[in-house]
Structures are given as C-alpha cells and as structure tokens.
Amino acid sequence: MDSLEAYIQMDGEYHPLVDLAITHYQLETIHPCSDGNGRLGRILIVLKLHKAGYLSEPYLYPSAYFNRNKQEYVETMRAVSEEGQWRDWIAFFIKGIEEQAKDSYERTFELLELRREYEAQYPNQKTSHKLARELFELPYFTADNITDRFDVSRQTAYNAIEELESDGIVIEVTGKQRNREYKAIDVFDILERPVQR
Fold first, then answer.
1. Is residue 172 assigned to a domain?
2. Using CA atoms, how far apart are residues 71 and 118, in angstroms rounded to an integer?
3. Are strands 182-184 and 170-172 parallel, antiparallel or unpaired?
4. Of 103, 88, 96, which is closest to residue 41 (Cα–Cα)?
5. pLDDT, tens digit, 9 for 90 and up, residues 141-192
6. Within this chain, do residues 35 and 68 fall inside the same structural domain, yes or no?
7. What is the pTM for the complete model shown?
8. 185: how many CB neighbours lie within 10 A of its CB?
C-alpha cells in the first residue's frame, strides 16, 4: 500500500488515464479496507481525473460501466494478476471512462435543455414556478422541504406541488397519505435512463 500511495503522489509515469488504470487495478488487488474498496477506487478515479484537468467538476460515474460489464471487469483484472495482460485491462478501463464521459455529457446537455424549458414554462415568482425551476437542485422532496426552501406555509407548498403534479412535472412516490415524497419525473427519466450505446 505504501508503494501504491507513493506512485499516486508522484502522479505516475504514464498518461494520466493509463496511470489511473494501473492505480485502480492495484487498489482493487491490494484490497486494503475491510469494506468500501470499490467505492474508494472509483472515487479516486474521479478525483484524479479532476486533478489532471480532464473534468472541470468531479462529475463522472465509472461504477455504471464497471457494473454493466462486471464479468469483463473481473476477468480483465484477473488476467493481469495471472498472465500480466495489462493491455486488455488498460483498454477496458479507458473505454469505460470514455463511455461514461460521453454519457455524462449527453445527460448534462439534456438536463440543461430541460432547465431552459422549465424556465420558459414557469417564469413567475409564485411558489409552483420557483419549485419547477428548482427541481434540478431538489429533484426528490417533501412538502417540508418546500416550506423550508421557499419560506411558505404547508398549504402553499401543497398547492405548488399539486399544480406541478397536474402538469405532469412531479409525481408522488410513496403511495402514503402522510409523509409523502415527490420526484421530478423528467429529471429522473434523464438520470435513470439506461446508457445508450
């Protein structure tokens, strides 16, 4: 682990994406923690890409690619351990970063377009309009979140939610009569859509 830490600190000796592939493999192989090694390894990928200037913000979700291709993920790492097959592992890793970067870019662009639509459709200062424009920061919420965020009464919050429900913008997700929770339909449709290849 000391050697891996030193390698990370010196920023490796190869292209940053190749160094990340090496670092990720080593961390997963060493498995230094009793729990959370995968999460630690994936957050390290994002932070190193951000530090190297490949991401302006640390917004990338490499787990989606690794989870979608779990068998290949495990097999290519095992091939490094057993046969020294670095080329296949590095190619797999870089392809994953590329796919996730493209996917993140496309989803971000769609969210920006949706935000512009909502800003045009809900331009006023009434609570329902403000809520529609805030759904990108608050895509999952309760009536209490709305009362706190906009400093309005519970009734005003419920009226705003009801208006957006009737517009098909938000939906109640618990099915309960009390402690109800809501989500922004279009925002979640973009975020949860399967990756398009």
1. yes
2. 41
3. antiparallel
4. 96
5. 999 999 999 999 999 999 999 999 999 999 999 999 888 999 999 999 999 8
6. yes
7. 0.74
8. 17
